[in-house]
């Protein structure tokens, strides 16, 4: 709630994605487990020699999801 309020007060656009959307963005499978998400994030970002925690992988997966969403908006004009 506080993040949404701060976003509104500062006129910052807020984007929210469900875990299903985020998992589909990185793995093409909305029911991917944490290890699968972690592996796919490392592959997509070419982080072969970098060890990511599940939380780090989740954060990067959310960022990838957002980039895909914005790219789609640019392509479709929406």
Structure in words:
The protein has four helices and no strands. With 78 residues, the chain is an all-alpha fold. Helix 3 packs across helix 4. The longest helix is centred in the last third of the chain and has 23 residues. It starts with a helix and ends with a helix.
Descriptors:
78 residues; Nucleotidyltransferase, domain 5; 4 helices
Number of domains: 1
Q: Encode the helix/strand succession as letters.
A: HHHH
CATH class reads Alpha Beta
Q: Helical segment tally?
A: 4
Low-confidence regions: none
CATH topology: Nucleotidyltransferase, domain 5
Round the Cα radius of gyration to an integer and report it.
14 Å
CATH architecture: 2-Layer Sandwich
Helical proportion, percent range: 55-70%
- Regarding quaternary structure, what we see is single chain
The averaged pLDDT comes out at 96
Shape: globular
* β-strand amount: under 5%
Short account of what is shown:
The protein is built from four helices and no strands. It is an all-alpha fold and 78 residues long.
Secondary structure layout plus pairing:
Layout: H1 2-9, H2 19-27, H3 34-44, H4 54-76
Helix pairs in contact: 2-4, 3-4
